[in-house]
Specification:
This protein has 128 residues and is of the alpha+beta class. It contains 3 helices and 9 strands; from the N terminus they run βαβαβββαββββ. InterPro entries: Glyas_Bleomycin-R_OHBP_Dase, Glyas_Fos-R_dOase_dom, VOC_core.
């Protein structure tokens, strides 16, 4: 079981604003921030649901290769809302909402690239 995940971004404030908007439809919000003084290296922002930050961004150094993160959505409408919010927040399309039957018949996902090129996905596995 994964407890949390984190990755570097090239512009901390821009990325934080992007994720605050893009993740809101999925029930995620900014739970906490830690300063560079507290971590001993870079500031970081932790997003999550129910008070637990499990999705972290930080630093101000771009990675050499983008990461892929998939967050479970409760239903297909939430996947659609994530996609719209992420695009409105400055993300770019990497696969609009729809069925991805090559994974399984009910795999409904949407993919966006964040401002650093990371592939962020919302996915619902439930039938309509």
């Amino acid at each position: 079981m994964i407890d949390h995940i984190g990755f570097s971004v090239s512009d901390y404030e821009r990325a934080k604003a992007f994720y605050q908007t893009a993740l809101a439809p999925l029930g995620y919000s900014l739970i906490m921030e830690v300063t560079a003084e507290q971590t001993g290296h870079d500031a970081a922002a932790g997003f999550g649901a129910d008070g637990k930050p499990d999705f972290w961004i930080g630093g101000e150094t771009a990675m050499n290769k983008p990461v892929h993160i998939a967050i479970t959505a409760k239903d297909r409408a939430t996947v659609d809302a994530f996609y719209k919010a992420a695009i409105a927040a400055g993300g770019s399309d990497n696969g609009p909402p729809g069925i991805r039957a090559h994974y399984h018949p009910n795999y409904y996902g949407a993919f966006v690239r964040d401002p650093d090129g990371h592939n962020i996905e919302a996915v619902c596995h439930a039938p309509e």
